[in-house]
Amino acid sequence: MRLSSVHRIRTISELRELQRFRLVGESLINKMMINRIKGKLILVGFTSAVVTASGASAQVADQGLSPASNTYRSYQDASLARDSGLNQPLELLNDFYPAITVDVSSHDNVRRRSDFNESDLRIAVSPSLGYRTSIGRHQFYAAYAGTYTFHQDLDQEDAESNAVSAKLGLDLTRRWDLDLFASVGESFEQRGISGSRQFNQFANNGIDSGPERVDFLNYGADLIFGRKIGVLTGVLGYDHSESGFESDDLFNGNDASNRDRESDSIHLDLNWQFANKTSVFGRVQRTETDYDLSQPNLDSRQTDYLVGLRFKPANSLSGVASVGLTRRDFDESSRESFDGSTYYVNLNYAISPFSNIGLSASRFVEEPGDENADFYESEFIGAQWNHGITPQLVFNSYIKAIDDDYNIGREDKFIDWGVGLDYVWRNWLTAGIYYGDIERRSNIDGLDYDDRYIGIRLRSDLRTLLEGRGRKYREPSSFDYPKKTEPSQ
Questions:
Q1: pTM for this model (two decimals)
Q2: Which of 17, 257, 290, 463 is 20 to 30 A from 369 in CA distance terms?
């Protein structure tokens, strides 16, 4: 994955949730007004809103526990899950896009320890600001996104994430485009996530140390053929990533910098749209990863092959399904190579005008946080359900199962579920309450934990406050991450 994954899984999922609730909220409020005139229009309009909302929230993994968010490949950026961002255009007007989310949650086991539970109150504030403009026929987009966490008692767990990203889209000719992108920032590794370093590896002053910190840099380019014409498009892309890890203290003298690494990848995408809303796609990608230190020597070369289908046979149903092969070889002969199949499925279905479900499943190879492992396979399956109880009250729920199988015999299994209610108080403000439960069971002693939590959240898409500046048409919802060739949603 791109090194910004540590940041993106946490912050971008929150932004997508923000976008989803804004779309649902505005649509529902508008339907209340329409109902006074033409009641039947509610069903037609809200069906579209629900489908749009489910597409915006996309991954079940975006809720609750994020799988593998500390590793250099994540659920969001794994090559098997990517086909082409050409199908996810950044449809924004030339202007600023501010937003903020405030999340307050009470946890039974905030550090997700296996020896005993530590309850605490956690506050997370996530501001963001995007800006889009046109330079002639070219487009430029830049964004800042941050997350600041605070704890009532365990203040050593306080941490922050900051990232600045940019994309320049050059319209070269009628057939050719060039996208240049970059991101830089700092983040932190949350406790107990899939693939993370276990808490019992911290010693000496480790109990009083905070989570590992991560610095990242990512840049690259995509040369695109046929985006504006025809049914066949292609992308030739290059991506460079760097990450550096810092920690106060680690068991057996293993320094966090052992995980510092950089990677270079090149990929070729092809997309053929053979029907109005149906297309097949494929990707071939080659990635080389080099660690800064020789121990542990995990330098590797990975090749990924992927084919898939994107479809939308009706307004109520859309999805993407793909299968692939991954081959990873290590420079050090004593390391175990990986050669196996991968897959990715994401379906969104509106079961009624006011209710929609989402289903996701995947399997891919990941970078380990366990220094004794060469890799692990992560299998994921999840479902979510969103239901509009009233035009302003939205119920949401999800459940996920994750199975991480390490090549050293370690196996971690996660069950993660949650429910919530969100109230569209204003067209620019959504307030909600939620409950969640995360459980990990491992065949390695000292890794099991349970964390139950309840919280409240406020999401404000401040963009809507700018709508009074003489605009007479509905504007796109709040910004998303700069698009390159990213996962299908």
A1: 0.79
A2: 17
Q: Is the pLDDT of residue 397 over 90?
A: yes
Evaluate whether residue 175 is within a structural domain: yes
> To 10 degrees, what angle do helices 41-57 and 5-35 make?
180
Buried b (16+ CB within 10 A) or exposed e, 191-212: bbbbbbbbbebbeeeeeebbbb
Examine residue 265 and state whether it is found in any structural domain, yes or no.
yes
Cα–Cα distance, 181 to 164 (Å, whole number): 11
475, part of any domain: no
pLDDT at 99: 92
Tell me which residue of 187, 90, 103 sits closest to 130, measured CA to CA: 90
| Listed residue (343, 350, 347) closest to 378, CA to CA | 343
Domain with residue 283: its CATH number is 2.40.160
Using an 8 Å Cβ cutoff, are 454 and 432 in contact?
no
Question: Do the domain assignments include residue 391?
Answer: yes
Q: Any residues with CB less than 8 A from the CB of 355 and at least 6 apart, and which? A: 50, 385, 386, 387, 388
Instruction: Give pLDDT, residue 71.
Output: 46
Q: What per-residue confidence (pLDDT) applies to 93? A: 82
Rounded mean pLDDT, 315-330: 91
In the chain, the amino acid numbered 37 is I
Q: What is the per-residue pLDDT across 18-33, written as a single tens digit (0 to 9) for each?
A: 344 344 444 443 443 3
Burial category of 323 from C-beta neighbours within 10 Å (exposed 0-12, middle 13-18, buried 19 and up): middle
Residue 193 — very low, low, confident or very high, per pLDDT cuts 50/70/90? confident
Per DSSP, what are the bridge partners of residue 318?
Answer: 348
Q: For the chain, what is the domain count?
A: 1
Q: What is the rounded average pLDDT of the residues 309-335?
A: 90
Lookup: tokens for 479: 């910004």
Q: Which amino acid is at 89?
A: P
Gap between the terminal Cα atoms of the chain: 16
**CB 348, CB 51: distance < 8 Å:** yes
The residue range of the domain holding 200 is 5-468
E strand residue ranges, 136-212: 138-151, 159-171, 176-188
- Distance between CA atoms of residues 21 and 29, nearest Å: 12
At 33, phi and psi to the nearest 5? -70, -40
Structural element, H or E, at residue 129: strand 120-135
pLDDT of residue 472 exceeding 80: no
**Choice between 28 and 404, residue whose per-residue pLDDT is larger:** 404
Euclidean distance between CA atoms 87 and 483, whole angstroms: 10
Closest CA to 354 of 391, 318, 382: 391
How far is 355 from 353, CA to CA, in rounded Å?
A: 6
Q: Does the structure show a pLDDT above 90 at 365?
A: no
Sign of CA dihedral 63, 67, 69, 70: positive
